[in-house]
Amino acid sequence: MAGSDGAVVTVAGIDAGGRPGDPVLAEALAGAGLVVGAARHLAVVPVPDGCPTVVLGPLAPALARLTAAVTAGTPVVVLASGDPGFFGIVRRLRAAGLALRVLPAVSSVAAAFARAGLPWDGAAVVSAHGRDPRPALNACRALPAVAVLTAPGAGAAEIGRGLAGWSRRLVVAEHLGTDRERVTETSPADAAARTWTDPHVVLCLARPDGAMRVDNQPAAAPAGGWALPERAYAHRDSMITKAEVRALVVARLRPRLGRLVWDVGAGSGSVGIECALLGAAVIAVERDPAAIVGANAARHGVDVRLVTGTAPAVLAGLPEPDAVFVGGGGLDVLAAVAARRPERVVVALAALDRVGPAIGLLRTAGYAVEGTQLSAARLADLPGGSIRLAATNPVVVLTGERP
């Protein structure tokens, strides 16, 4: 694909066993004027005698040398691990405006699922390499099948520690394709207690058989939509966030894959469940030990972690949230939530006398606050075929956003 006035760069994948993924690589190497790659990759391919090489360390110097060679019309081969278009160097080379021909090998993720004997067409693939590992961890908390590309300090042990409280099994694949290969199925707790060698890939599974979504959308918006009617949930005495309020609350929480949302005072769990349907990891906090959150979550096919206890005390020790919905409890609960400094706090209040203190508390904690009063009226039938408006209880929704 054209993208540069110079030569096309051949980017070739080397599999975990040190084998090129495409036989065309030998032909490309034979005509190369520069070969770029990690030392271990340069050592396993037939680089022509006298052909200059660049050993990849920091990418910037190598990229400058590579770009100069391309501009001069020199044929260049870049060697990379697995499929270089899959969380690999292709992205950086394309960003530099280079025209590429990619020859992929089997990716480490594909190899890991193969070793485990599992399909992976419905799995989500995330990376904790060279970036904040929390979104990858939250994907493991949210979805039934996730593959994580790890890094030192963001690997199987750290993922295992972060999954405390979630029912998961891990498959850890170390040194795939080499004589040091080891594939281990383990629990998060055991993974957290062990030392793992790099490089390794982690598969996080909600079920041992690897069951996952089958709609080609591992973290897409739900087909049935959101802001579902109250009849879509079991609830007690109409104690449920109404659909009109829930629509605004979920919009303000901004749930998506990689984020962790707390639903405090969850009740039926409708807000948290709809956040989970949109890909977020969710912790539902409810003081009632007979909470129906679990049954509602199962009905909608999502995994919501239920924490039973009285807030704010029960919030201690929970993993840090990105956003929190406070649907129950007093100002002491809101204060405890604000003290954890999530990016966003959303509060639903039916009692007007609580609105001013709640705004003051959030502003004192450093949040910019906006509010909306929702007063919906639904169509209802009358005898004789007439229609009336049936008002729902007015609710004030406050949104606190941390600058």
TrEMBL record:
- Specify whether S-adenosyl-L-methionine is a keyword of the entry: yes
The family database entries (InterPro entries) matched by this protein are listed as: 4pyrrol_Mease (IPR000878), 4pyrrol_Methylase_sf (IPR035996), 4pyrrole_Mease_sub1 (IPR014777), 4pyrrole_Mease_sub2 (IPR014776), CbiE (IPR012818), Cbl_synth_CobL (IPR006365), Cobalamin_biosynth_MTase (IPR050714), SAM-dependent_MTases_sf (IPR029063)
Which keywords fit this entry according to its UniProt record? Cobalamin biosynthesis, Methyltransferase, S-adenosyl-L-methionine, Transferase
Pathway linked to the protein:
Cofactor biosynthesis; adenosylcobalamin biosynthesis
Q: Name one GO biological process term.
A: methylation
Single GO MF annotation: protein methyltransferase activity
Q: Name one Pfam family in it.
A: TP_methylase
Query: Which segments constitute the Tetrapyrrole methylase domain?
Result: 27-187
* Any coiled-coil regions, as ranges: none
Q: Signal peptide location in the record?
A: none
Cited PANTHER family:
COBALT-PRECORRIN-6B C(15)-METHYLTRANSFERASE (DECARBOXYLATING), COBALT-PRECORRIN-7 C(5)-METHYLTRANSFERASE
Would you tell me the protein name for this molecule?
A: Precorrin-6y C5,15-methyltransferase (Decarboxylating) subunit CbiE
User: Which organism is this protein's natural source?
Assistant: Micromonospora craterilacus
Gene name in the database record: cbiE
